[in-house]
Amino acid sequence: MRIVLLGAPGAGKGTQCKRIVAKYGLLHLSSGDILRQERAAGTELGKKAQSYMDSGALVPDVVIVEMMVAAISKTPQTWFVLDGFPRTVNQAAELDKSLASVGQKIDAVLNLKIDDQVVAQRMTGRRSCPQCGAVYHIENLKPKVEGICDNDGAKLIQRSDDSLEVVANRLKAYHQQTEPVVDYYKNNNTVYDIDANRNADEVTALIFENLDAFVKV
Ligand code: AP5
């Protein structure tokens, strides 16, 4: 399976990808995680992306497409789930072109649908592990010990782009530039709309139900 997971900031893409990977054994490729790694390593790519990410704007397509096509091409035979990419119609078309050149295609698209009011609560309460990338929430998905990662005991951090002001810009970018990607895929692919306002376990159950049915076809 080659899957794309679409959804607004805070829809739960990262949370659900980890569960999809655990069940179906896919490779998880998150454009946001790769960009944050590049920034932490101080690479040219990380420096180019920095100002866009800090303001909540999208990083230019040309930078993202090159980065994600390179990540996918590293393991050409591996099935994957894409998280946060593609985020513009142009990125989706470039991805399709690149996959077609090696006889591949996106098999299924999961579209996590969430109300804007729910996004703010999720973003401001999110805490992440800087070591293993595990994601928690101060109310919805608490670690066993407050502020500490269950997996490796690291101190949890808050992402710098999770302030209310930046989240508002990220939502704007989502509605203007990423929502049209859903229609792009609806014209060519199997798209599953998932109610992401529900709790994380209920969302996982909906995703697994759809993917299980898809795998059997
Ligand atoms: P990115 O890192 O991709 O951020 P995002 O899409 O805004 O998504 P998030 O990671 O914030 O949220 P998520 O949907 O993964 O939610 P999560 O599972 O963490 O991108 C960051 C930036 O990089 C962009 O702004 C842009 O600048 C740049 N960028 C990245 N990709 C790009 C691209 N393709 N093109 C251009 N620029 C790009 O959950 C959120 C919180 O809610 C957590 O605390 C979690 O515990 C909790 N939670 C999750 N699910 C539930 C639930 N069902 N119920 C209750 N709580 C839940």
Structure overview:
With 217 residues, the chain is of the alpha/beta class. The chain has one domain: 3-Layer(aba) Sandwich (Rossmann fold), CATH 3.40.50. It has 8 helices and 7 strands. The protein has helices at 13-24, 31-41, 44-55, 61-73, 89-100, 116-124, 164-188, 200-216; strands at residues 2-7, 27-30, 80-83, 108-113, 126-128, 135-137, 190-195. The strands form 2 sheets. Strands 2-3-1-4-7 form a 5-stranded parallel beta sheet, sandwiched between helices. Strands 5-6 form a two-stranded antiparallel ribbon. Helix 1 crosses helix 8 (200-216) and helix 6 packs across helix 7 (164-188). The longest helix has 25 residues, at 164-188. It is globular. The two termini are 12 Å apart. The model has no long low-confidence stretch (mean pLDDT 94). The site of BIS(adenosine)-5'-pentaphosphate has 35 residues, from helix 1, helix 2, helix 3, strand 6 and helix 8.
Helix content: 40-55%
Query: How much is the average pLDDT?
Result: 94
CATH superfamily: P-loop containing nucleotide triphosphate hydrolases
Low-confidence stretches: none
> Any idea what the CATH architecture is?
3-Layer(aba) Sandwich
**Total number of distinct structural domains:** 1
The value of Rg in angstroms is: 17 Å
Give the termini distance in whole angstroms.
12 Å
**SSE string, helices as H and strands as E:** EHEHHHEHEHEEHEH
Strand order of the largest sheet: 2-3-1-4-7
Q: β content, as a range?
A: 5-15%
Q: What overall geometry do the principal axes of the alpha carbons give?
A: globular
CATH class: Alpha Beta
What small molecules are bound in this structure?
A: BIS(adenosine)-5'-pentaphosphate
How would you name the oligomeric state of the polypeptide chains in this document? single chain
- Count, helices: 8
